[in-house]
Amino acid sequence: MQRGANLPLVSGYNESVVLDVIRRSRTQLSRADITTITGLSPQTITNVTRRLIAQGLVVEAGTQIHGRGKPPTILQLVPSSRFTIGVHLDPAVINYVLLDLAGTTVAHTCSADPPSSDPAATIKDMAREIESLLESSGVERDRVVGVGIAVPGPIDAAGGILVSPPLLRSWRDVPVRDSLAELTGMSVLLETDVNAAAVAELWADRDDSGDFAFFYLGSGIGTGLALGRQVHRGPTGNAGDGGTIMVPSAELPAGRKSEMLGHLATPQFLTEYAIDLGLVPQDSSFDTVLARAAEHDPAVLALFQRAAGWIGSAIVTLVNLLDISAVIFGGPFWNSISRYTLPAIVREVEQSPRRSTHRSLRFRSTILGEHVVAIGAASLVLESLYSPRATTLLIRE
Amino acid sequence: MQRGANLPLVSGYNESVVLDVIRRSRTQLSRADITTITGLSPQTITNVTRRLIAQGLVVEAGTQIHGRGKPPTILQLVPSSRFTIGVHLDPAVINYVLLDLAGTTVAHTCSADPPSSDPAATIKDMAREIESLLESSGVERDRVVGVGIAVPGPIDAAGGILVSPPLLRSWRDVPVRDSLAELTGMSVLLETDVNAAAVAELWADRDDSGDFAFFYLGSGIGTGLALGRQVHRGPTGNAGDGGTIMVPSAELPAGRKSEMLGHLATPQFLTEYAIDLGLVPQDSSFDTVLARAAEHDPAVLALFQRAAGWIGSAIVTLVNLLDISAVIFGGPFWNSISRYTLPAIVREVEQSPRRSTHRSLRFRSTILGEHVVAIGAASLVLESLYSPRATTLLIRE
After folding, report:
1. By three-state DSSP, how is residue A152 classified?
2. Which domains does chain A have, with CATH numbers?
3. Which ipTM score applies to this complex?
4. Does B44 sit within 8 Å of A244, measured CB to CB?
5. How much is the pTM?
6. Is residue B394 very low, low, confident or very high in pLDDT (cuts 50, 70, 90)?
7. Which of residues 318-337 of A touch B (CB under 8 A)?
C-alpha cells in the first residue's frame, strides 16, 4: 500500500536532519552553515533549531568570529541530554554499554558467565545488570531513551523473538524484546548481532560511506549490510547471513565437507585444522594457534592466508552482488587475526578474476573496538529516534 | 551530506503516490478511496487529482453506484497520455518496445542481426529503429517521455557508459546514453539488463512484493535485486552480478575448473556438458539439448536437474544474505528450460540445510514474457518520472 507524505512529517524529518548534521560535524556550525548543508530555508532552520533547543538536544555555544558584522552563534549537540543502553547477547559472554547522544561509551560492563541455558533467568540478570549500570554511572533514568539488544540470528523481528540461534541451543523462540521491556520498564529494540554492528558504523560514521558490508567474526560469521545509508534488514530482520556464502573448493583441506565460509574461517575450525595438520598439540585452543602465529610459524601463517583467501572470495561475491564501496571488519575475534589476514584479504579481493568491475574498494577494521555490537545495539535506539530516514516521511496506517 | 525536505517536494511526491495508486488498482477508485489508501487529506487529494487531470495523466470516468447520496466520481489512468521506448541491447539481438503509461506494450520490434562490432553504427541503427517504431505505431512524438536502454554490465551509471561487457568485446567504454540522446533528441536512461528486468517487475507489480531477486538467464546469468520496493543498483549501478556466486563443487562435472554459477547454468555450458557426456552429437546447439529433454531423455533431464541444483544453491546464498521474499525467473533462455528446472530449483531451496530461516518463499516466472528487459528499459523512464520514491522528497544540491 502506497502512503502519502504531509507537512507534520516533513517537520519531524527536518529536525532529525539538522540534529544529524550538528552531531556528525567535525567543525563548529552556525545556523547559516546548516542552511547551506541541508538546503533548507533560514526560516525553517530557525524553527527547527528552536525546537531542538527546547528539547535540550542542542545548545547555543558561543559565537564564530570571522570578518565583520554580528558573529554567528554556534550550535552544539548536548551529549548528556539522552542516553541509551546496548546489550550484546553473545554465545560466550553478555556485554553492556551505556551510550550518550554523541555515541560516546559512558560505561561498559560484561557478564562473568556465558548466557545460561535458562533464558528467563538470564533475561532477569540482564535487567539487574542494566539497573546497576545506570546506578554506577549516575545517569538519571528519565534521560535513558531505551534499550537495544543484539542477538545471534535468526530472529523474528516483528515479534521481537530470538528464534533458533545455532550456538545457543536452549534459546528457542524466546521473546527477548518484550520480556526485557517488561522487566526494565523501558522500550526495547531487537536486532541481529551483524546488523547491530552495521548500525554502529553508520551511526558513528563521519565520512559518508553509506554502502558497505560489515564482516563480523565472532563464534560465527555474518555480514551486516549498509545500502544507501540504511542497514538492510530485510522483511523479517534476518538479512546479513553471509556466513553461508560458498567458497572455492580448490583451497579446502582434504576431506573437508563444507564449503561454507561460516564453517571455515571461524576460530573453532582454524583450531581444528591446525590440530589436524599437526601444527599445534591435540586439545589446543585458538589462543595456542594465535601464539604460534605471533612466533611467525610459517605453517600457521599459511593457514591464516588460506582463511584470508576464503574471506576474500566471499567478499568478492558480496561486492559483485551489491556494488558496495567498502568492507569494515570487526567482532570479538577480528582483532586477534586481523594482522595475519587483512593484507591477504585485500589482495585476494583486488586481484580476483571474479570481480565484475574494477572500482576501488575501501577496507578497514571498525574504529569502535571489540564491543561494536553492544554499541550498535545502543545506537539502534538513537537511530530509530533521531536518524533522518526518508521513509519516516510517509504517513503511517 | 544530509539534505532536508520541503513542501514543494511533498506536493510532487504525493502526485506520484496518487498516480501510482490509480495505475496499480484492480478496482475502480473514487477520491474517497484514494484518501483512505494514501492517508492523505481529502483536500490534498482534491488538489493532487486536479493537477493530474490538468496534465492529462488521469481522467474522470463515470460514477460508482452504491447506496444513496451523490455517487462518487471514478478516476482513471489515461494510458495513451504518455509513452516510453525501451531498448534491450543483448549480445544476440536488439529488442525494442513502445510502452504506454499503463505499462502495456503497444509495439515491439527487433533487429535482424546481433549488435555489430562498430558501436557507433549500431547506435545509429537504434535511432533509426526508434523513429520507425514511432512512425509505424502512429504515436505522437511529444507524448514520448524518453528512452531507456538496457545493456549487459558492467556500466558506468553516472557517465551513461557501457564499460566492458564480456560478451560484446568491441563495445568498450561506449557512451551509449549520450550518443543515443543526441541522435534521437530524447532523454535517455541507461541500466544493466538484470536491473532493468527488476524495474519491469516492480513497475508491473500489483501484489506489493517489493523484496525479490530477478534471476535472469540470458547468454549470461545475473540477479537483479528489489529491496524494499526499490531496485538496488548500488553506487555505480552494477549491483546484481549474481552470476559470480560460487556453488558447491560436489555436483560439478569432473575436470570443470570454475564453480561460478554464471559459468555453469548457461545454455552454452549445458550444451558443452551434454556433448562431453555424449548425450548429443559434437557441434550440437542448445536447441538439440532441448529437443532431447522434450523427448524425456533421462540423462538430459538429469543434466537439467544439476543445473537446477546450482541455481538453487545460489538462490539460498541470496536469500540468506538479503532476506528476500520471492524469486522471479526470466530472460531470453528461461522459458525454454523452466519446465525442466523450476520444480527442482524450488525443492533445492526449500530443502537446503544452508537456509538460515524457514520462512516461505514465492517462486514464479515473469509474467512479462521474453522481452522483459526491453519492457524494463522502457519502465525505467516511467519509474524515474512517476514512481513515488521517498528519496525524491529530499532537497537536491
Report:
1. coil
2. 7-77 (1.10.10.10), 82-201+373-386 (3.30.420.40), 208-368 (3.30.420.40)
3. 0.93
4. no
5. 0.94
6. confident
7. 318, 320-325
